[in-house]
Write a structure and sequence with these properties.
The complex is a heterodimer of chains A (368) and B (347).
Chain A lengths: L11 H37 L7 H8 L7 H36 L11 H15 L14 H28 L3 H24 L3 H11 L11 H17 L1 H7 L3 H6 L4 H23 L5 H13 L4 H24 L9 H20 L6
Helix pairs in contact in A: 1-2, 1-3, 1-13, 3-8, 3-11, 3-12, 3-13, 4-5, 4-6, 4-11, 5-6, 5-11, 8-11, 12-13, 12-14, 13-14
Chain B lengths: L5 E11 L5 E8 L2 E2 L4 E5 L6 H8 L7 E6 L2 E2 L5 H5 L2 E4 L11 H6 L14 H13 L15 H14 L4 E5 L7 H18 L2 E5 L3 H7 L2 E5 L5 E4 L1 H6 L2 H6 L4 E4 L4 E4 L5 E6 L2 H13 L2 E4 L10 E5 L8 E5 L2 E5 L2 H17 L1
Classes of the chains: A mainly alpha (368), B alpha/beta (347).
């Protein structure tokens, strides 16, 4: 090639280019370490700090299978708090990644499972499966470990999510104004919500109460029996996200550029949004329609890592998602009291300000 | 003969509205782009420049005919294979926030990297070459969102270059840029085509720049006909004049540029030489005069302008029906002329 002929600058410039890349990489590595440490700390805090405080040392002993002062602590940690912590981790991971994927594919910084009506679609899927099938009478309180109940609910939620996403994608390819797309997402959410309301209206009192409770969101609903299903769904989708970082980076430049670089845009969109639907569906099925985390997490990740590169943002959003979800969980538990708040209240208290920040920043031009 | 880098054969471009109805914008287009050639595509707004460019770049399906790049039909190439032969710079708005210039240019290596997009030493070498060739080295560590429009356009060209294509398509890369930046970008593309053998096709509204720098022009006329040839040939054939002249505007073949169509104010005889003659002629034409440099039978001369000896202090002598005046510069002479035509109108 003509590389030699076009050498306009001294050789040192090359070193500077490499250095600039290097200093950013070192900073990002440090942030990963800090986030991982925060993640471990929040796991331990979540396990020890709740309605009953259990010393962190004792928690560690329980986790390692040792003997502790009170045997009830073992039950509390292993059967109540550990599933709750795992649920929070899965929810944070799922919503963070689904939000990131949707923001990039829609090229819209305010896209998330919640804003585009995808969570509502998943709710509809869940409501249909639960209310229409007579076998699962009391459902929202716990699916248990029946393979078919779990599969049905997750599939219903994921299909509901994918249905709404497909509609929104079709809308977004015709309407270029991202504000209009978001407004249509809001309309979509209330439309789908109306159908759910009608379904609820015709169900019995018990089901209605449970549905309302489920709608508030909770990390405590998943027991060991359901855990394998939820984690399998999320892990599968995470694997897809990890394998599609390269297409996601190409999509940052828009579909035309992505295609001109050799990407099959149609397939990439199906695969990426498929995994987003699976994550949003699994989260909604097991923890309820949790708002705001999907929007907030990718923006926090972009902000602290200082990049739009998905090779950093995919693991970054997972770590940020885990820390934030666990923090919201601790907040909702109101440590040392027997009360606990709905998760949606905690995530909104946290995510609201982030959404406001994004909107204010967007006046200077939307950016991903 | 060597195969053309890009060739279209009986190509029809346009839109399929439904299964039956098609809207043909251009048809039977037979053009070619040779290796190392720099082509500018000109045409009025809405003539189909973007549609043709997008069809050639396989961003839009063609209606009939074929497009060949490096002798291969683009219809039969996968997106990936096409990406190694052709790269694009589009008018699409960038929404990327936190990507450095280096990372963005690195995305140009997309067709050559594995699933994790890991860059080899060779990839880095090509990225740095592309950054240098487009003179973006000082921008390498900066975020793309912080760049000016002109800088960002240079970076997008660097990205397209890092893709190592045989052909680069650019859709109005100089739109919305200030004049010096437009000249710089056009010069950069021309230089790349010369120095690296890259074939460049860009659409533009910058007639003047296109005439000065393109090897070949593709000209889409208002009648949706596509003409091609060296800029000078197209002027001599009158193709540019007929495409761009309108009620308001004339394409002046002598000057190689546009001037507003003015009501004729009269005929002027100009006796001068060299640069002063050229600029005085422009000033007179701006005022609506037809300028002659010698008496022609049958043409009545309204004013005579003669260049003076510089030692006298006055540079120009203006001779009219009412008498003779001396003017130190073109500006004051124009004021005299305007006063004169005002008197004529009142009288």
């Amino acid at each position: 090639m003509a590389a030699e002929r076009l050498d306009y600058l001294p050789e040192t410039e090359e070193n500077e280019l490499a250095l600039a890349a290097g200093s950013r990489a070192r900073r990002q590595a440090a942030i990963f370490v800090i986030l991982a440490a925060l993640g471990i700390a929040s796991v331990l805090l979540s396990l020890s700090w709740s309605s009953v405080s259990i010393p962190v040392g004792q928690v560690l002993t329980i986790l390692l299978g040792g003997e502790v002062e009170r045997s009830t602590w073992v039950t509390i940690v292993m059967d109540i708090r550990l599933p709750r912590v795992l649920t929070a981790i899965l929810v944070g991971t799922g919503l963070g990644l689904a939000g990131l994927q949707m923001q990039t594919v829609f090229r819209n910084p305010l896209a998330s499972p919640f804003t585009l009506g995808v969570s509502s679609g998943a709710s509809l899927g869940v409501a249909l499966v639960i209310l229409v099938s007579p076998a699962t009478a009391d459902v929202f309180t716990g699916l248990g470990s029946s393979f078919f109940d779990n599969l049905g609910t997750v599939a219903g939620a994921a299909l509901g999510a994918a249905g709404v996403l497909a509609i929104m994608l079709a809308v977004a390819s015709r309407v270029k104004d991202m504000v209009v797309v978001l407004l249509l997402g809001v309309v979509m959410a209330s439309l789908v919500g109306a159908i759910v309301t009608i379904l609820i209206f015709f169900s019995n009192e018990q089901q209605t109460r449970e549905f309302v409770e489920w709608g508030l969101g909770s990390f405590s609903r998943v027991r060991w029996g359901e855990m394998p299903f939820m984690s399998a769904a999320i892990c599968l989708a995470v694997a897809v996200a990890v394998l599609t970082t390269k297409p996601l980076n190409a999509l940052l430049l828009g579909e035309n550029y992505a295609q001109s670089m050799g990407l099959n845009v149609k397939w990439a969109r199906i695969v990426i949004l498929g995994s987003a639907s699976l994550m949003a569906g699994a989260v909604v099925a097991y923890a309820g329609p949790i708002g705001f985390l999907g929007i907030a997490i990718p923006h926090i990740a972009r902000g602290i890592f200082g990049t739009s590169d998905h090779r950093i943002l995919v693991p970054g959003s997972v770590l940020v998602g885990v820390v934030v979800a666990l923090a919201c969980g601790i907040l909702a538990e109101l440590p040392n009291s027997s009360l606990n708040l709905p998760i949606n209240a905690a995530t909104a208290l946290f995510g609201g300000p982030v959404a406001i920040w994004v909107l204010l920043k967007a006046r200077r031009g939307f950016a991903l | 003969m060597k195969e053309a880098a890009l060739a279209t054969h009986a190509l029809s471009v346009g839109y399929r509205n439904s299964r039956r109805s098609r809207q043909v914008i251009l048809q039977d287009v037979n053009l070619k782009l040779n290796q190392g050639e720099f082509i500018c595509m000109l045409g009025p707004n809405g003539a189909g420049k973007s549609t043709l460019l997008r069809t050639i770049g396989k961003m839009q399906p063609l209606l009939a005919g074929s497009v060949e790049i490096d002798g291969r039909n683009i219809e039969r190439l996968s997106n990936h294979d096409l990406a190694t032969l052709l790269s694009v710079v589009l008018t699409d708005r960038l929404t990327v926030g936190r990507l450095t210039t280096y990372e963005l240019v690195g995305l140009g290596r997309y067709p050559y990297t594995g699933w994790s997009a890991g860059l080899t030493l060779e990839d880095h070498r090509i990225i740095q070459w592309a950054i240098r060739a487009t003179r973006c080295a000082n921008l390498a560590a900066r975020d793309v969102s912080d760049l000016s429009d002109g800088e960002r356009q240079r970076v997008m060209i660097a990205r397209a270059l890092a893709q190592q294509p045989a052909v680069m398509l650019l859709d109005e890369p100089t739109a919305f840029l200030d004049l010096p930046t437009r000249v710089e970008i056009t010069g950069l593309l021309k230089r790349l085509s010369r120095e690296t053998g890259l074939s460049v096709l860009m659409s533009t509204h910058d007639l003047d720049l296109a005439l000065r720098s393109a090897d070949t022009l593709w000209l889409i006329t208002p009648e949706r006909e596509v003409m091609h040839g060296a800029p000078e040939d197209l002027i001599l054939q009158g193709a540019l004049q007929s495409t761009f002249s309108s009620e308001e505007l004339v394409f002046d073949a002598d000057m190689g540029g546009f001037r507003p169509r003015l009501e004729a104010t009269g005929n002027a005889l100009l006796e001068a030489e060299g640069l002063p003659a050229m600029w005085m002629r422009r000033a007179l034409e701006r005022e609506g005069f037809r300028v002659f440099d010698g008496r022609i039978a049958g043409e009545k001369i309204d004013v005579e302008i003669v260049a003076c000896d510089q030692e006298e202090g006055a540079a120009w002598r203006l001779r009219t029906g009412v008498g003779e005046r001396y003017c130190p510069d073109i500006g004051s002479l124009m004021i005299q002329l305007r006063a004169l035509s005002g008197e004529n109108k009142r009288g």
